[in-house]
């Protein structure tokens, strides 16, 4: 009834229902009563459906757990997919990180430990007849000359002749020398003294004292040289000491003249040269031309530039090697060096005639008058004794044709004084052969 007053003994809405009475001796009877339950002794127990649901007590012994409605215990398919995705993403990130780290490590190792294929270290010994073998044999006996004179300074090359310190080089290297310094392949430098020189042969000898362990070069024989033979040149082109170049003999008996800077002809050299394509440049002068057995067969003396015309810088541009180098045959060098060491001067073979250097025909014509009104054929000279007359045209020397006065001088100077020669002369339109023995004259 709405108006009926409520009993003081009715259960309050905030109270919990009284726990049912447990039988004596049960475990429930032994439990202490809940502090907030107030049993009602005088009321009957309420029906089960009338008993209010227990209220959530956050401070109770077992707080209620919130469950996701409509999901099975342990998570549904959506949860499992999310978990799988998260796991896969984590694994991918981990794999990417590990892979990147391994890549960086591999790159570092490859950059610091890169090893390309390479030949093993081998013996540096070379066959004696190879270019390297020839160079190894000859280099200790080759020297670089630094010369100072009134006209300036220059560089040339030379090589050791004997254990006494004699060194052979070109005359044009030392002709104006005031101070001569010789540098060996080891780098040791000493002062040298001029022993003797000859402009006609473009050869000179200097000497060093107090040097131990000198290694003279072996001398070959230029008569044995054939076109096509391999050769090696050693020198100091452009002051680059101990430079080795190689080539072949391009020609033999090549008549050349060099020098003539003074204008009076006193410094012209006449050489029956060995021609080579081994690169020879300024500074190679006086250096050895070697055969396959590291023997000296020539003394490098002259080169032909690409263009001898022009002046100043333009001519300097053309001064490099173009494969036309010329060497004094060692047989001639040996004879002159022996004379320079012995007497300080060299002798020149002569035929005792004065040549007409203005003659433009083929051959070398003997003049009709000599210098100072003297006869062109020296009385009782080698030519006179052989029957040479003024106006004769000499066309051959020992059967080799000559085309001018310079070539005749070159062919004669390729011999020693006292050597016999056969000259072919043209007189009154007829050729005849005359035999003579070379005389001697002092050189410069």
Automatic annotation (TrEMBL):
SUPFAM superfamilies: PDZ domain-like, Trypsin-like serine proteases. The keyword Ubl conjugation does not apply. Residues 349-429 form the PDZ domain. Residues 16-35 have a biased composition (Low complexity). Residues 1-62, 364-383 are annotated as: Disordered. Keywords: Hydrolase, Membrane, Protease, Transmembrane, Transmembrane helix. GO terms for molecular function: serine-type endopeptidase activity. Signal peptide: none annotated. One of its GO terms (biological process) is proteolysis. The chain crosses the membrane at residues 84-106. This is PDZ domain-containing protein.
